[in-house]
Inverse folding.
């Protein structure tokens, strides 16, 4: 009965999450050509509003339609300003290639159905869904009640900026997937194949997004503990090394070989990372304007994306992007600032901290890995020269941390399942966070950082908003970017009504799960 | 063989409890020596690194400190009187040991040597402090490592600045103060007083430490043994700890006829800050919040934001930890003296600190934020000790941040020295002096208060310069410049330059010299050839008060 009950809950979680993701998924019908992609319909007012989306899609498109890792002029124009140029003056992607390759099946399937972009974006949504299920599974395995685990998972997907990046094209959910799957493998198994898969995923994470290597480091260290074990037994210190397990390290060869091949073909050298190439800010018929040219001219920069490019191009080594001096400002931006801060965009995840404290008492070592991964994620992107993540919604770089905090949230809910005050605060913050994050998913996710707003106001002569209010305004004035809304729902309702419908559906699911948790707890049955 | 047996196959070995104990005992016994040895190596390596890349003398102040030390042993009026009026004298006095040597002077090693010794000493003191707090070997070593692996500390220990000497003497004062609180043996109070006295002769931060230590001594003894004993011990403590301050007041009274000349004289920080206030660029004065904000930023940039946050967490853990005695907790409060002092100094307008982005587009005195580094190292060592299950996470994250700190060579103190208001590129003017005045005979009249770095960078002997400290030479040269100075280096039309101020209406200067070159910080005037025959080029005067 209990197993059936849990399977039913799992199925409900999958169905509801899938349904909401479908309602939020951004896109337009059709298989756009390179020419179409540069139109406003597909860029600023369409699904490719952010250069983050464009840069990654450009590589997929170029690979499948032009059969080249190097971009044609049209695709290069589409990818700017996240475009790089090689020494032999070929336009290439500025991003690691993982995401662009992973969305290939979606693109091809979507193309058959006449919506290649939607198909490509749907792959991200599928990974987001898998992340939700992984949070559910990890939390349960670490002692959370099923309803609490489901609430934690739902919170991650719909009450954090993860929602926005689950319905658009970015690397975040792929990175989170690698992180969570690794964590799950560590908790669940201790054998050679799980270890092989962990190494494989760790290497794959670099192909998805180069900095992943840093916040997967704690997992790597913990996994190394399966190879070299150190135990204190009756006062003696015992070392044991398993040579068979050392062989599992060979699993990194495949992703790294792929990465080296990509770098060789695309960038001209197997060790040349895309991000360390010279950045191109704009492409015209006669001239290519690089970041260096712009720096020389000191021109006024009209968009935040360009400002980002200049700052991040001052250092062109793989670790040069991260400076400890940025930490103080980075902490502020990620946690407190009105334009990106967790306290404004997704305060609910902070309740997960309590859960990690409880978890530490029962699962010391795995909690240490979770805290270390979170710490590395927060520190890394606080050192990043652009902690705002360009024009983005919320603190998008901390999505892996939100996922881990939501595991903690499930534990908090389990621990305080009868505490009315905690549950009340939880539901209040859940409703708030869902309402905020649905704005980003259904409206626009390109929010300028506060530091750019004054310059922007000078250029546009209008008051510019720098937080979720901008998404709300977009929703009210220009509509939703959702594929379902654009193709079906807009005939019968306005974008704000659509937003109300989607957010209410999420909130209703959350409330039902919470009531179920409370009810089951009060009956002392799970 | 089954799959499971293959998986379990492995190499195993163990270290017995006995051997582990021996290793542990070895480290416990020789850790101080090992720390000293390793720190010596790091210290030398860092000095050589910054010497070779030329950054060791990037701070204008470092060059001035070296010149002050040099003037004590060489110049037209050598002697202890040259120790100065505003900057406290201990570092300059110690430089006397080696500054007579040209290499030691111009390499900066004469001053850096003391910073390096203080660096090693502070590292050892952090280790010992943590040991007294009952922290295990790992926590102690991490505390030391945190201090040592701070890139700003490594830079400052390689320069002739006073920061490391201050940190060393203050940490020693705090350490012996802790011992006294723990063991109540007066000898530790005396030792603490001695080190605090030395710190009061390095920088004015030490004066606040003395005040705080006296207050804590008074409270502690009064509560434990009553007023009479408290009175006696406070007098004992203050007699030694305050001796340096009394000497300094006496010195100022003797040399400058005003015991508070250092505080309110024309070259004092106070006077400088008044000018800044007049120009409306002293926003921290009489404002607590901006003062605290600026100092917290300075700390975050110097010690690292993550280290600072962990440091405060460690302090909190230490102060609320009931496992250690309240005496120890109270004594450890002395470690926050630099934080309180700097905020109060900014609030009172006795100090100025500019953070790029917060106070315009420049850095100035941002290095003051380094003062809490030994304290944070101690607090974090304690935090690691108390949160043992998470210690590897904390250590790992510290290493993670440390890696990027070195990978990006992120030393705010170097920026402060190179691009901030503390820097002064005098290469061109000093090269001119070296090239044209160097081979010729004749003195150069210059104000050290304004142009000490030019003197240093010129590479010429101190005795070639007539400056404010040159006694009768300066007085005479101001009246008859054409008899004494072949060259005059002044910032034309700036009354802040005392030589210009005193000469600008003197016909001996205005009519008999011609401007031969002009630079961003000063101009060079040369005596016209027709007046050269009556120029005195040898030091023939007898000093009135050369000590």
């Amino acid at each position: 009965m209990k197993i059936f009950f849990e399977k039913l809950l799992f199925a409900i979680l999958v169905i509801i999450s899938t349904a909401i993701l479908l309602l939020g998924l951004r896109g337009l019908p059709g298989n756009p050509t390179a020419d179409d992609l540069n139109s406003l319909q597909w860029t600023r007012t369409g699904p490719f509003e952010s250069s983050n989306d464009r840069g990654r899609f450009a590589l997929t498109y170029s690979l499948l339609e032009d059969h080249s890792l190097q971009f044609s002029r049209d695709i290069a124009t589409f990818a700017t300003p996240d475009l790089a140029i090689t020494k032999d003056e070929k336009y290439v992607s500025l991003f690691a290639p993982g995401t662009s390759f992973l969305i290939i099946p979606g693109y091809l399937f979507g193309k058959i159905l006449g919506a290649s972009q939607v198909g490509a974006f749907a792959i991200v949504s599928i990974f987001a869904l898998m992340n939700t299920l992984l949070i559910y599974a990890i939390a349960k395995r670490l002692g959370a009640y099923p309803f609490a685990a489901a609430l934690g998972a739902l919170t991650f997907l719909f009450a954090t900026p993860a929602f926005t990046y689950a319905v658009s094209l970015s690397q975040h959910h792929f990175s989170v997937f690698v992180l969570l799957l690794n964590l799950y493998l560590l908790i669940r198994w201790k054998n050679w194949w799980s270890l092989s898969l962990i190494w494989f995923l760790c290497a794959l994470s670099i192909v998805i997004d180069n900095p992943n290597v840093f916040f997967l480091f704690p997992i790597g260290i913990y996994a190394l503990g399966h190879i070299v074990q150190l135990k204190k037994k009756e006062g003696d210190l015992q070392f044991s090394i398993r040579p068979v397990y050392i062989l599992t390290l060979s699993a990194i060869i495949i992703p790294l070989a792929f990465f080296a091949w990509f770098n060789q073909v695309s960038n001209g050298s197997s060790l040349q990372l895309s991000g360390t190439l010279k950045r191109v800010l704009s492409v015209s018929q006669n001239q290519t304007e690089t970041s260096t040219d712009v720096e020389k001219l000191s021109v006024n920069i009209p968009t935040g994306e360009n400002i980002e490019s200049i700052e991040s191009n001052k250092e062109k080594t793989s670790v040069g992007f991260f400076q400890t001096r940025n930490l103080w400002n980075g902490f502020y931006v990620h946690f407190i600032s009105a334009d990106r801060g967790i306290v404004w965009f997704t305060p609910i995840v902070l309740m997960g901290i309590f859960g990690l404290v409880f978890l530490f008492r029962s699962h010391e070592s795995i909690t240490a890995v979770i805290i270390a991964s979170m710490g590395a994620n927060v520190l890394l992107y606080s050192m990043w020269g652009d902690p705002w993540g360009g024009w983005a919604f919320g603190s998008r770089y901390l999505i892996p941390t939100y996922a881990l905090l939501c595991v903690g949230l499930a534990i908090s809910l389990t621990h305080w399942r009868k505490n009315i005050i905690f549950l009340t605060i939880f539901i209040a913050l859940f409703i708030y966070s869902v309402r905020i994050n649905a704005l980003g998913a259904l409206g626009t996710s390109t929010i300028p950082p506060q530091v750019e707003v004054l310059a922007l106001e000078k250029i546009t002569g209008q008051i510019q908003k720098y937080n979720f209010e901008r998404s709300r305004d977009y929703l009210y004035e220009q509509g939703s970017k959702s594929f379902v809304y654009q193709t079906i729902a807009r005939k019968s309702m306005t974008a704000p009504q659509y937003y109300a419908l989607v957010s209410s559906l999420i909130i209703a699911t959350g409330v039902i799960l919470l009531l179920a948790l409370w009810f089951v707890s009060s009956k002392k049955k799970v | 063989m089954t799959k499971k047996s293959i998986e379990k196959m492995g190499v195993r070995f163990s270290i017995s409890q006995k051997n582990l104990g021996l290793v542990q005992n070895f480290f416990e016994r020789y850790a101080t020596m090992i720390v000293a040895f390793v720190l010596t190596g790091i210290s030398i390596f860092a000095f050589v690194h910054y010497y070779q890349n030329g950054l060791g003398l990037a701070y204008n102040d470092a060059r001035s400190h070296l010149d002050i030390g040099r003037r004590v042993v060489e110049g037209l009026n050598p002697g202890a009187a040259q120790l100065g009026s505003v900057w406290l004298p201990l570092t300059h006095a110690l430089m006397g040991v080696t500054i007579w040597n040209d290499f030691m002077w111009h390499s900066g090693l004469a001053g850096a040597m003391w910073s390096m010794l203080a660096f090693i000493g502070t590292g050892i003191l952090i280790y010992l402090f943590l040991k007294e707090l009952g922290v295990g070997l790992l926590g102690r070593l991490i505390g030391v490592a945190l201090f040592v692996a701070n890139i700003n500390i490594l830079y400052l220990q390689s320069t002739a600045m006073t920061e490391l000497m201050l940190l060393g003497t203050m940490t020693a004062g705090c350490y012996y103060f802790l011992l006294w609180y723990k063991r109540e043996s007066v000898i530790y109070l005396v030792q603490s007083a001695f080190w605090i006295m030395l710190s009061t002769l390095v920088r004015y931060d030490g004066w606040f430490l003395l005040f705080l230590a006296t207050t804590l001594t008074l409270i502690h003894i009064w509560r434990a043994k009553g007023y009479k004993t408290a009175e006696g011990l406070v007098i004992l403590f203050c007699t030694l700890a305050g001796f340096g301050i009394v000497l300094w007041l006496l010195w100022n009274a003797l040399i400058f006829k005003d015991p508070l000349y250092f505080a309110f004289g024309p070259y004092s920080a106070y006077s400088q800050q008044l000018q800044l206030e007049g120009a409306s660029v002293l926003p921290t004065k009489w404002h607590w919040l901006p003062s605290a904000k600026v100092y917290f930023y300075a700390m975050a940039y110097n010690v690292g934001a993550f280290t600072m946050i962990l440091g405060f967490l460690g302090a909190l853990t230490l102060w609320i930890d009931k496992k250690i005695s309240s005496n120890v907790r109270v004594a450890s409060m002395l470690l926050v003296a630099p934080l309180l002092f700097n905020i109060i100094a900014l609030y009172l307008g006795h100090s100025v600190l500019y953070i790029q982005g917060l106070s315009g587009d420049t850095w100035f005195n941002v290095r003051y934020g380094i003062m809490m580094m030994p304290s944070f190292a101690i607090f974090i060592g304690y935090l690691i000790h108390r949160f043992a299950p998470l210690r590897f996470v904390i250590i790992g994250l510290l290493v993670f941040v440390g890696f990027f700190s070195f990978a990006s060579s992120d030393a705010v103190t170097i920026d402060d020295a190179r691009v901030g208001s503390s820097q002064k590129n005098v290469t061109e003017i000093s090269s001119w002096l070296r090239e044209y005045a160097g081979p010729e005979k004749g003195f150069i009249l210059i104000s050290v208060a304004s142009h000490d770095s030019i003197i240093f960078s010129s590479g010429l002997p101190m005795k070639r310069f007539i400056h404010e400290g040159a006694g009768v030479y300066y007085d005479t040269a101001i009246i008859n410049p054409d008899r004494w100075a072949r060259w005059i280096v002044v910032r034309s039309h700036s009354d802040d330059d005392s030589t210009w101020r005193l000469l600008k209406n003197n016909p001996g200067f205005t009519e008999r010299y011609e401007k031969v070159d002009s630079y961003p910080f000063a101009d060079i005037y040369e005596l016209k050839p027709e007046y050269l025959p009556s120029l005195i080029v040898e030091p023939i005067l007898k000093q009135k008060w050369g000590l």
